[in-house]
Amino acid sequence: xxxxxxIPSFNPSEDWYADWPHGVSTSVQILASVTGAAAxxxxxxxxxxxxHNPDARVPAGVDLYYQGGFTVETMPTDDAGALQIVLxxxxxxxxxxxxxxxxxxxxxxxxTSGEVRLTWHELAATRAP
Length: 129
Known about the structure:
- The protein is an alpha+beta fold.
- It contains 3 helices and 6 strands; from the N terminus they run αβαββββαβ.
């Protein structure tokens, strides 16, 4: 098991809840950056129960997964070597779905043995396609 102190739960700010356009279909989202020797294995553990959509229209190097009311986009590592994961959801239950996805990711990372570190980044809401 990982040291939970390096895998914090997502605690959104009040601004994140308030920063979305009213009256239009909106996608709320957060970015998770995962690092450490066991990061790849931990992320794969999170992705296992999700459905992969290989036909999704996403940029090269991005994979799209979904489950219930949320989507997960995995991207190549950034310049610092962190795995980048965007959790997103649209619709009336968007916030609840993204928070559920964040809890699922946190739990999966904590269940993985080895060194794993997680950093959360709030992203601005966007109009849903």
